[in-house]
Write a structure and sequence with these properties.
The chain is mainly alpha-helical. Among the domains are: 125 residues, Glutaredoxin (3-Layer(aba) Sandwich); 136 residues, no CATH class. It is built from 22 helices and 4 strands. A 4-stranded mixed beta sheet has the order 2-1-3-4, with helices on one face. The termini are far apart.
Length: 424
Amino acid sequence: MNTEITDEVKVNGWVLYDADCRFCTRLAGRFRPLLVRRHLELLPLQTPWVRARLGLTDPRLLAEMRLLLPDGTHFGGADALIEISRRYRWTWPLRQMARLPAMKDLLRGGYRWIARRRNCTDHVCRVGNPAVGDSGRRFLDFLPLLILPLPALWFRNAVAAWVFMWLMALALFTGCKWLTWRRAAKQGGALSLPRAFGYLLAWPGMNAAAFLNRAGVPEKPRGSEWVAAAAKTGLGTGLLWGIARTVLPVHPVLAGWIGMTGVVFILHFGLFHVLSLVWRRAGAVAMPIMQNPLGACSLAEFWGRRWNTAFNELAFRLAFRPLCRETGPAMAMVLAFGLSGFVHELVISLPARGGYGLPTAYFLVQGLGLTAERTALGRSIGLGRGPRGWCFTVLVTAGPAFWLFHPWFIKSVILPMLWAIGAT
């Protein structure tokens, strides 16, 4: 009977889902047109001949969606999604990331985490279970983060590499802002429409609950902070439109690094600090996202409280904390850093069309370094505190920085951007 079905339908495979799960059936309905274009047919896992072909009992059969190929090969969970992605050109970045063992493990762990939280009993999601609607709403919270990068990918070959970099960064940033705002709004934080618009459109931080809480008491800005913010903006301007231009004829790559550092000082250290001061004067809890990174005496302090706290807060709440419950602190930390690497691949390696895996390797080194400073040996030799901790932090964060901002990125993205904005 299986052979007859294969011959008559002429499909390239069957995407199998749990028909008793309301969340699963909704997703199947949404993605059916996309799958049909590649001759992939959607079928319930409960179909009799499917059960017979897979040879799995209910708990294992219904634990994850599956892809069954006509030759009998089948894939489950994240591996099935990766295999399906091979049929579509626009999923090329996902396939490249999935080639990295750490990223594949991260995708598998993420899929299992979502699958286990369908609020099911006896491994089956009943159609009438209202808790499944909560899972669907949580999925909608994440949907912009998953969907918005796709339009950016569409323009990848139509715009300059540096423009594509900013489009991808904006797509990811917007998705994260929406996600954090939705979560805060569910907790009753978004009581003021102007404050909500301010958070979404005029503040780079990701702590929506604190920003939207009108009862919060921010630290009042000091006069010295205004001077420091202006000085950092001025320093970045000098690096970008002064020193980088002077160095370019002698050493283009070094000029690219100097120009990129100037952009970071103007935005992250300068203008974002000014926004913090403005919002704090207006009564919002909006601390600067850069908190004197050079003062960190440990990697935990550097990544947790000093460098780009906006992204770190998001990674902690949405990646580390959930993964910690499933895998333990050590593995969760490595996976969270791996996720950071994936995000940076999208905004660094993908626009540069080269250097794939280097940003991920950089962040995995950070995870390993943080693990090392927490071991008994690390503590015994002074890591995590004092001058030795400071030296170790600088060595681990700055030493392999050329992996994060690799030569492909500097030459293909940064230097053309500097030329376009008149900095070279």
